[in-house]
Specification:
The complex is a heterodimer of chains A (264) and B (273). The relative contact order of chain A is 0.09. Chain A is built from twelve helices and no strands. By secondary structure, chain B is mainly α. Chain B has two domains: 183 residues, no CATH class; 66 residues, no CATH class. Chain B contains ten helices and two strands, in the order H-H-H-H-H-H-H-E-E-H-H-H. Chain B has a two-stranded antiparallel ribbon. The interface between A and B is large, with 109 and 109 residues. Chain B: One of its GO terms (biological process) is phosphoenolpyruvate-dependent sugar phosphotransferase system. Chain B: It comes from Liquorilactobacillus satsumensis DSM 16230 = JCM 12392. Chain B: This is PTS family mannose fructose sorbose porter component IID.
């Protein structure tokens, strides 16, 4: 193993660990596959392959959000691990999906574990506050980000330790229909995020806009950005007209209130 | 020391506010636990600024204790809430405790609803689909734009703590109602994109063909595409949407279901990549 490969291994593990800390707070690169994938590509020295893999996972992730403390599959981790193995072994996107997807799903469990451990830390900090040990309280808070970084650093470390060549060996042993099936799943999986997305949003109230977007795309082949712009036009119109209504209602109410005041 | 002296002597500087804002936005969910969720992060973030407000040890301890309580909201929004509560604590000292707690509890829910939709759902979906397609072609432009946007957002989030502090509770409350309208408007844009995504991002096709004597008919191009383009993706979306109505069908379970369907489809040659 060359020294460059060792350096890459270390950087990939650090990237995976930092990703969670960033996602939990800074949100500069967060766990968004294209951003994380771009950085992975720069580390591994193959931006093109990393971006294609990242793009695939990015589309799977659309609409997937971990809201209100819920956990969701970690497509960012899937991108890092998938791109790492695919680039190191020279295997393509199929290998990236076959390795990345399971790792991204398993990582959910580690997040739950990290949050349970963090409960003890929270109690410790609270006790320190009650004992007026504020210096300690503020210092031990840093254990939180360290703990959460392990949630993605450990799975990546395992993949690096086991070695991408071994992963490749296992992948070769898997029958073709399985890897094909996982690729098919990769094409279908964006549906989960889209379904979740529709659940967060007022679908019933604004159903026509889904239909408009679908028709423009499926029949007329308008690109996503074009549809987003049309959507923006519609929402701009909605916002201004509704804001005017609210304003009128408020001034009306204010006038009514004033009227009552004069009566008194 | 009387309260008047405290408020007549404003010790909190812009630098303190920026520090508290960045501390909070950095720690956010990095101390997340199932009991008090973001509580410890709030206490940790506000510790230096609260020390300035409460030189008295017992008052400081009580104020921190208060912030250790359950809290969870989108960071963008809670930046403003916590800025406002800091202003309240500076003005009223320990007496503000109850008001601080009730402002936090009453605003975190509604503002999180708005904030999560904008910050974690709508924006990543729109920029994600655009940059995702660029990335598939090996083009990093979308990812770079997204990265730069996130850096700008960071400064906005930190600034919002200051905004909450200076404009106080009134703005935070009234902004809440305006944000609801804003989110609705943004949802229109989001749902138009969702319609497009169903047709383009979800990929299900079948290689099945029927033989009628010498004539063969491909199910995909000959039948399904004639009925409606992207018919299978539309039906699959409807199925997942309906399944999600049921609490038992968590997203993770649905992901596993999709993988099982895909594997079976691959094995029997019903679906193709």
């Amino acid at each position: 193993m060359s020294s460059i490969e060792i350096l890459q291994d270390i950087l990939i593990i650090l990237l995976a660990g930092f990703m969670t800390v960033d996602q939990n707070g800074l949100v500069i690169m967060s766990w968004f596959p294209v951003i994380v994938g771009m950085i992975t590509g720069l580390i591994m020295g193959d931006l093109h392959t990393a971006l294609v893999i990242a793009g695939t996972f990015q589309l799977m992730m659309l609409g997937v959000a971990a809201l209100g403390g819920a956990s969701a599959p970690n497509y960012g981790l899937a991108t890092i691990v998938g791109a790492f193995v695919a680039i190191r072994t020279g295997t393509g996107i199929k290998a990236a999906i076959a390795v990345g997807l399971p790792v991204g799903l398993i990582a959910i469990q580690l997040e739950v574990v990290a949050r349970i451990i963090c409960n003890f830390l929270a109690h410790k900090m609270k006790t320190d506050n009650q004992q007026h040990k504020w210096q300690t309280m503020r210092r031990e808070a840093w254990l939180g980000p360290i703990l959460f970084s392990l949630q993605t650093a450990i799975p990546t470390l395992l993949v690096v330790l086991v070695g991408p060549q071994f992963v490749k060996f296992i992948l070769n042993a898997i029958p073709t229909w399985v890897t094909n099936g996982l690729t098919i799943a990769g094409g279908m999986l964006p549906v989960v995020g889209i379904g979740m997305l529709m659940h967060y949003m007022p679908v019933k109230k604004f159903l026509p806009y889904i239909i408009v977007g679908f028709v423009l795309s499926a029949y007329l082949k308008v690109a996503v950005l074009g549809i987003a712009l049309l959507g923006f036009a519609a929402s701009y119109w909605y916002f201004t007209s509704e804001a005017r209504k609210v304003k009128e209602a408020v001034t009306q109410a204010a006038v009514d209130e004033d009227g009552e005041n004069y009566d008194e | 020391m009387s309260k008047q002296e405290k408020s007549a002597n404003p010790k909190i500087t812009k630098r303190d506010l920026r520090r508290a804002g960045s501390r909070y936005n950095f720690m956010a969910v990095n101390l997340f636990n199932y009991e008090s969720q973001m509580g410890p992060a709030v206490a940790w973030a506000l510790a230096p600024i609260l020390r300035k407000i409460y030189p008295d040890d017992d008052e400081y301890q009580a104020a921190l204790d208060n912030h250790f309580n359950y809290f969870n909201s989108t960071t963008v929004m809670s930046s403003m809430i916590l800025g406002a509560t800091t202003a309240m604590e500076e003005k009223d000292g320990p007496q503000a405790k109850e008001a601080v707690q009730s402002l936090k509890t009453s605003l975190m829910g509604p503002l999180a609803g708005v904030g999560d939709t904008l910050v974690w759902v709508l924006w990543p979906t729109i920029i994600g689909s655009i940059s995702g397609y660029m990335a598939l072609q090996g083009n990093p432009l979308g990812a770079i734009i997204w990265l730069i946007a996130n850096i700008i957002f960071w400064f906005v989030k930190v600034k919002l703590f200051e905004v909450g502090y200076t404009s106080g509770t009134k703005l935070v409350t009234s902004l809440g109602s305006k944000m609801v309208l804003f989110t609705e408007a943004a949802s229109i844009m989001g749902l138009s994109v969702v319609g497009a995504l169903i047709a383009t991002v979800v990929k299900v096709t079948t290689p099945l063909t029927f033989q009628f004597g010498k004539v063969s008919l491909a199910l995909q191009t000959g039948v399904l595409d004639k009925i409606m383009p992207a018919l299978l993706p539309a039906l699959l979306t409807l199925l997942v949407y309906k399944l999600l109505d049921n609490k038992k069908w968590t997203p993770t379970r649905i992901i596993l279901l999709v993988i099982v369907i895909a594997l079976a489809g691959s094995y029997f040659g019903i679906l193709k990549a």
